[in-house]
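Our consortium's second objective concerns turning raw sequence data into structural hypotheses that experimental partners can test. To show how far this objective has progressed, the report includes one record in full. It was chosen at random from the queue rather than selected for favorable results. The single chain below, 279 residues long, was entered without modification.
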Amino acid sequence: MQVIEKIKDVSNFIKELKTQKKTVGFVPTMGFLHEGHLSLMRYAKKVTDVVVVSIFVNPTQFGPKEDFNAYPRDMEGDKGKCLEAGVDILFIPPAAEIYPDGYLTYVNVENITDVMCGASRPGHFKGVATIVAKLFNIVKPDKAFFGQKDYQQAVVIKRMAADLNMDVDIEALPTIREPEGLAISSRNSYLSGAERAAAACLYMSLKLAEDRISKGERNCAKIIEAMQHIIQSEKLAKIDYIAIADTETLEEIKTIDRKVVIALAVWIGKTRLIDNIVI
């Protein structure tokens, strides 16, 4: 596995691989890798010739009161996991390499970033779109892989790539869950034992919604009300939002008459967790 820090070095290395007609798969991450990330890497290994992983905790997607400094990091552990997953190139640029002095340019995807997590975290998706656009330009992948847990993020990146004519195929792969159903996330490391038990209410509420819909319920307000009841019965939980929306436009709907994403964000203590299902 090649470990590279400089943009020029990784670009030149990949350019050489492209002359050999190698297909490049890309998994961008913020590190503190878990089974969700590793599942993306293993899948990329199956469908492309060369797997590139980036680790960069992106400061521009964190708000002023968010957890940038506290965000979990484990570079040595991450290197070992990447090696075991068969990663060919690990790109770990320092912040000054990505955002040098005088940096002025950002990517803003409109409308679909104003709802759900975008409403709760102003500017978050501008930071996400900017870093992913930069990484796509640096790595020039044929395919890029993201997790469905961050559903809105995947929709935003697909829209950005389509609108800006980026020559990359983007796949969102299924959420990896812990045995009790909790979506695996780097931020789960913040949870105490009691909070981890409480966090099960997210997936329980999503499964309740799925059950109600399978039995014929189409009224979104009634479904959300039932989900709220489950979450609010957990004293450590505080709802940020619950949304039932069109899978592509992310526009909230009142009646289920199409494929939908049911997404939510819930505070468990001081930790904000997200999850979703597509029905």
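The partners drew two points from this record. The first strand starts at residue 2 and ends at 4. The first helix runs from residue 7 to 19. Both points have been shared with the crystallography group to help prioritize constructs.
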